[in-house]
Design goal:
heterodimer, A: 111 residues, mainly beta, five-stranded mixed β-sheet, four-stranded antiparallel β-sheet, 0% helix, globular, B: 116 residues, six-stranded mixed β-sheet, 10 strands
Chain lengths: 111, 116
């Protein structure tokens, strides 16, 4: 699986958009980009995933660059409850059992 | 609907004792995963069950670790002769995996294991 690089930490003001970047320069054509988050003392929570096109759901938007070497997770109106560690993961194929989580980005939403 | 549940939520044990951790996946989810997360670190894959196929045990760190799953329901992770380095949060996840489809994994709250 391709490796990902994320900033260690980020701050965001409450009510503003949080933009979390992820670099995956060695991504293969059949690898999907997944985002999860882990709020303190809880299990990871699935947020969104995509292959080529930008995606949006009730939680967030995922913007993937045309060359697919990087992506950005956007939380449009961050709240204090969005404070968490956000993990960007790329997965090579549907039968890949091992979802490797790196260190992620610790997002702190401040009032 | 009900999510993935795990029990106990916390377990404190003495070094050398055996422990059993339980996971109840979401009903209908054919795939079940166990992960370990040490303090301040990312998730470490342990084992994967998919339907009636042989489990993928490639992530188990030693032969002290084993896991079973009854059909497509409950799973138990057993750690024998626990060591202090086994202290971690053990997370279970399930997914409605079907061959050919991209899945998402739904995680339980975890069991925090402390080995004294």
């Amino acid at each position: 699986d391709a490796k990902t690089t994320q900033p260690t930490s980020m701050d965001c003001a409450e009510g503003r958009a949080a933009n979390l970047p992820c670099n995956h320069s060695t991504i293969s054509g059949n690898e999907y980009v997944y985002w999860y988050r882990q709020i303190h003392s809880q299990g990871p929570q699935y947020i969104i995933h995509g292959l080529k096109n930008n995606e949006t759901n009730e939680m967030a938007s995922l913007i993937i660059t045309e060359d697919r070497k990087s992506s950005t997770l956007i939380l449009p109106h961050a709240t204090l409850r969005d404070t968490a560690v956000y993990y960007c993961i790329v997965r090579v194929k549907v039968d890949n059992n091992d979802m490797r989580f790196g260190a992620g980005t610790r997002l702190t939403v401040k009032p | 609907g009900a999510g993935v549940s795990q029990s106990p939520s916390n377990k404190v044990t003495e070094k050398g004792k055996d422990v059993e951790l339980r996971c109840d996946p979401i009903s209908g989810h054919t795939a079940l995963y166990w992960y370990r997360q040490r303090l301040g670190q990312g998730l470490e894959f342990l084992i994967y069950f998919q339907g009636n196929s042989a489990p993928d045990k490639s992530g188990l760190p030693s032969d002290r670790f084993s896991a079973e799953r009854t059909g497509e329901s409950v799973s138990t992770l057993t750690i024998q002769r626990t060591q202090q380095e086994d202290s971690a949060v053990y997370l279970c996840a399930s997914s409605p995996r079907a061959r050919g489809l991209i899945d998402t994994q739904y995680f339980g709250p975890g069991t925090r294991l402390t080995v004294l």
